[in-house]
Amino acid sequence: MNSKVIVIPAKKKKGNSIKESEKKKLRVAAYARVSTDSDEQATFL
Question: What pTM was computed for the model?
Fold first, then answer.
């Protein structure tokens, strides 16, 4: 089996570079709710 691999180098896009200081932070939050009739749930947290 004679396979030939051709490597294509990546090209750097012009005009689409964002400085590290200009990047906005992504704010995320997690929420979970469990409803039961158990008395233990009221004091869990």
Answer: 0.23
DSSP state of 17: -
Q: Cα separation of 17 and 23, whole Å?
A: 10
34 and 41 Cβ atoms separated by less than 8 Å: yes
pLDDT tens across 26-45, in order? Answer: 889 988 877 777 777 667 66
Q: Which residues contact residue 41 at a Cβ distance below 8 angstroms, ignoring those fewer than 6 apart? A: 34
Q: What average pLDDT does the structure give for the chain?
A: 76
- Cβ neighbours, 10 Å, residue 25: 5
